Amino acid sequence: MHHALSITELVRLIVEQIQIGDPPRLDSDDAIDPQTLAKLARTARVFREPALDRLWYRQQGIGNLVKCMSISLWEERPTREDRIVTEWCDCSSYLTFKRPVVPEDWERFHYYASRIRALDPPDGRVSCVGLAHGVFEALYNARLSSHLLPNLSTLYWDEGYHSTAFKFGTMFLGPSLTRLAIGVHTIESVPIAALLLAHLPSLAHRVRKIDIVMHSEGLIHDFFIPPTTLAALERLESFIYLSDTPLSMTAFTELSSLPALTTLRLEASSSWSGSMLVGPPVNMSHPYSFDALRNLEVEGRSIGSCISALNISRYPKLRAVMFDVDLGTSDTIQGLFEALSASSSCTELQRITFGVRCAYGGTRLDISLLRPVYDFHNLRSLILTPLFGVKLNINDRDLENMGIAWPYLDTMVFDYFPRSPSEVEPSATLKGLLLVARSWPALRRLQIEIDARQIDLDKTQQCHGQVVNECLREIHLCDSPVDGIEPTVVANFLSSIFPSVRRIETYAKQGESRWKMVEEILCSPCGHPVT
């Protein structure tokens, strides 16, 4: 044996190169080639342990682990013979126990169980084995320790995949668990999920990421995270809550006390008018301060409830914020930005994403409602996505003011989906693009609606001097009208201020052919359309 193979770390690095496919769902490691690893474990002693660790690292359920127990304990049956499978219901076969579990059955189970680091949902790429109803209960009652998988770090526990076995999820909690994803599909399982969370402080207090997904779309359920649960998880860094039921004020208060929490995401699955929080504030004497929070995302909640939540909280380290809410009035939207300005640091916030929805259409919003966030001078990204007929009214002066307020911008997106061509009446012109190039030489992403007809291009071109942005390679112009203007003139103007642009994207058919001609000229070395 080569002396280099006596170095444990080197052997493990060699084993880690045996991998195929895309990254799985809950981890960044690449998918492994199980056949190659199995052969390596059987044929080379030096690679045996590292290969087995890699082979068992990630499992889709515990069917393979149960197969390592005594052969006299279990039998495998085709799934089509019965509908009593609780785990991985789409599997071609399932396991059932023929007798009670005895201590001797656990020897090989524990030998491999300690190698499992992640339990993932099925992805269709790997054939899996299901388990009958009684198997989970037998394992739960006969296990020799409270931690069935002592080194498990990632647990994806979804009722849709585990059915009646969902209630046994606590036996997978352990001191090594750092990420937990819980999926609930029925109201009956809501208290089971709450009980699972209640066990975290005692069984898995080192958890760093929690995802709670309530799949019962449109159903109202009384789901509340047990009090003091979140406050005890001092290492928690990310909390994602997707449910039509608002987060309790108690849970919100406990989250604000966590010293390591950097990501908070609250999303409703179907409602666009629900509250963000429920219950009275626990302490009205001072705002709740999320001292470590860097990313805040709220989707599917009422804009009024978002304002209320911002008014009672502070985010001194907030770097990125995303709101996707229902439309109230222009005043309430400006109120949201005012609350954001008051609750966040003007030097820390760098990315704002805001989406607003209106079911009736025809709503025009003045861009002046953004003035409360002009104080965020370190802003790098501004993405506004008003959908369903909500239109932003932006003119050239607005773009000039934004350039003064946000000199470091690298992403600017003003999206809009008009209902008919008659709604396309942009106020910004090609002169606005000149201001964009002048204000943001490092801009890499631009989406805006302009009117290419309302400008004297020759005069503008003469006055722009050496204004150049070489970073931008693509422009999305939504439904910008360009009829009546010679494509060559527009292309020459664009290439003079954005010399790297080679692609122009648009939405509807209006003006599409003429913008394509502009694009062809930009791509052509001779400066003429390609015929």
Automatic annotation (TrEMBL):
It comes from the Eukaryota. This is F-box domain-containing protein. It comes from Fibroporia radiculosa. The lineage of its organism: Eukaryota, Fungi, Dikarya, Basidiomycota, Agaricomycotina.
